[in-house]
């Protein structure tokens, strides 16, 4: 839980709730705040299994999964390849396209070029190519006076795509069974 991504606080909350639920179910739980010392912490704790409650880069992008596989520790979460592909929006879109699914067209371009002028006719969305949970998402609506003025901590390369109105839903899947649908609602929308 925790970690070093932009989603650290959400991950800490998820980790605490998962740990509490696992304890209530009778499991022995050791909470580990995943920093750069994670390999040493895992060697110290020597878990039977790792429940991955990390969010964002370093937790959902295949890196921690690769570390856990290297250490031969069983873990919850998708594997290395699925995690890496899902976190890279450009890669994920190509996989969906190849499967015949409709995908919104997008561009990957320099952050500074997006700041300089509208890369697409509004409405459009600007976001990091490799973050999750709507981190760093800018929606430029019709009638906007200028392009998105992205924060300084946005990555040098960003994804720009045509805006599609709708609801954001996430579905947890275990094996071949959907466990539930959750709507993601952000402030102001």
Compute the separation of the termini in Å: 28 Å
Enumerate the strands of the largest sheet in spatial order, edge to edge or round the barrel: 1-4-2-3
Sheet of most strands: 4 strands, antiparallel
CATH fold-level name of the largest domain: Dna Ligase, domain 1
Report the structural category.
Answer: alpha+beta
Query: What is the C-level CATH assignment of the largest domain?
Result: Alpha Beta
Number of strands: 6
Backbone CA Rg: 19 Å
Unreliable residue runs? none
The helix/strand series, from N terminus to C terminus, equals HHHHHEHEEEEE
Mean pLDDT: 92
Relative helix content: 25-40%
Beta-strand residue percentage? 15-25%
The rough form would be described as elongated
Please count the helical segments. 6
Which CATH architecture of the largest domain? 2-Layer Sandwich
Structural domain count: 2
